[in-house]
Amino acid sequence: MKNTMTSISQKVFMLMVCLMGAAYAFGQDASQSSSSSSQTTTSTTTAPVADATMWYSNPIVWVIGAVVILVVIVAAMRGGNKSTSEVSRKVTTTTQIKED
Fold first, then answer.
1. What is the pLDDT of residues 6-57, one digit of tens each?
2. Sign of torsion, CA 23 26 28 29?
3. Can you tell me the distance from the alpha carbon of 71 to that of 56, in angstroms, rounded to the nearest whole number?
4. Rounded to whole angstroms, how far apart are CA atoms 70 and 20?
5. How far apart are CA 95 and CA 92, in angstroms?
6. Do 54 and 48 touch, CB atoms closer than 8 A?
7. Could you report the per-residue pLDDT of 17-27, keeping only the tens digit for each?
8. How far apart are CA 14 and CA 21, in angstroms?
9. CB count, 10 Å around CB of 52?
């Protein structure tokens, strides 16, 4: 029992060491070269303009979208009523009674 616990604790310890080593390796910055030359990097980014030119800010899009949703809802409501059918049955029985 004692050997089993020692073996398990050693395996868990080695697992934790490996995981910490991997986390440390992923957390490193890019390596710097030891040469004396310097390098500068510039980058520019442009964000989309959030004004009236965007399609979702146009009120016509919202109105058309609402109309389409309403048409779909109405069609679903009316289509549900057609699926039910009414069955009627008329049964007529005649009996003849003979009198003695």
1. 888 888 888 888 888 888 888 777 666 555 556 677 777 776 665 557 888 8
2. negative
3. 21
4. 56
5. 10
6. yes
7. 888 888 888 87
8. 10
9. 8
